[in-house]
Design goal:
single chain; 171 residues; mainly alpha
Length: 171
Amino acid sequence: MVFVFWIVVALIAAGIHLMRHKDLRSRGEVAKVLLRYWLLVVIGIGSIFGAMFHIFDARETAENIGFIPWEPQSTGAFQFENAMGDLAIGIAAMMCFWIKDTKFWLAVIIISLIQFWGDAYGHIYQMVEYDNHAEDNTGAILVFDIVNPLVLVVLYWLMGHSGKTESASTT
């Protein structure tokens, strides 16, 4: 349940930021701060950690997803390719903390939405087609893969549709 950890860290960091910047109180400003930390921590750091599991603990990670038997030439190759996608999304999402262009953020959100909803589809397909109910196929990861992009989209929408937003120099 490492996803909950990253969410809590992001919310605490955003809360501290908002406490330090008391002028950021409009709905759009709060959404922007929350989105910024969600991208940095939940998507960025979380995806990089996910990539590390797919690289350095590939066999156990594949088995936890229900991809057995382990075959280095197939399952191992898939794990590495999945890790590179997670790593790319993680780095791009972390860059959003320093690149304050919200159009860049939107690009990362769209890429994350495709990746996570694509993962969710894959998990559901495995569950329905192959009766794969492994913990990391249909457990918390499935919920996270569906809900996480929704959080990004809602925060981005709130940020852009709430009137005045904070200036780039205060974030």
